[in-house]
Hints:
By secondary structure, the chain is α/β, with parallel strands linked by helices. The chain has one domain: Purple Acid Phosphatase, chain A, domain 2, CATH 3.60.21. 13% of the residues lie in helices and 30% in strands. It contains two helices and ten strands; from the N terminus they run E-H-E-H-E-E-E-E-E-E-E-E. The chain has helices spanning 13-25, 52-60, and strands at 2-6, 30-33, 66-68, 90-95, 98-103, 121-123, 130-135, 138-143, 156-161, 164-169. A hairpin with a 2-residue loop joins strand 7 (130-135) and strand 8. It starts with a strand and ends with a strand.
Amino acid sequence: MKYLICSDIHGSFAATQKLVKHFNELACDYMVILGDTLYFGPRNPFPEEYVPAKVAELLNTLSDKIIAVRGNCDSEVDQFVLDFPMLSDYVLIIDEGRRLFITHGHVYSPEKMPKLSKNDFFFFGHTHVRTLETQNGITICNPGSASMPKDNMPPAFAVYDSGQISWHDL
């Protein structure tokens, strides 16, 4: 399976349109959203083209292809406008015998890891900073933010395909 992995869209319709375009062009099987989908929170500036209703509408066209978790800026009321579940703190995906632990990063993080095994993957968002490292045989990946990166890098996402991770700029 091929997964487009993104985080921290924060209601940016411009970023969502680009993500969907890449999802289709790269022929991904699923889009994994690591939280903070619709809202930006009180500490952040407005993202480009902040239109959460249009983000929900566009993502709902892919609802059978989306795996999502709740971020710290997401709430239960968001679920009313989304046609895919997004209220879990984590999702566990099994892909070719590897576990992919999917979370936002405010509950589980590289500093507070769940029990994983060598060759497993830990994907998180929250920090808006790209990360790709290995600790004790576990690959840790943060794709950065699709709308508001904080690492002097462009908005981005990652693709996971058969145990390999690649970076992509929006």
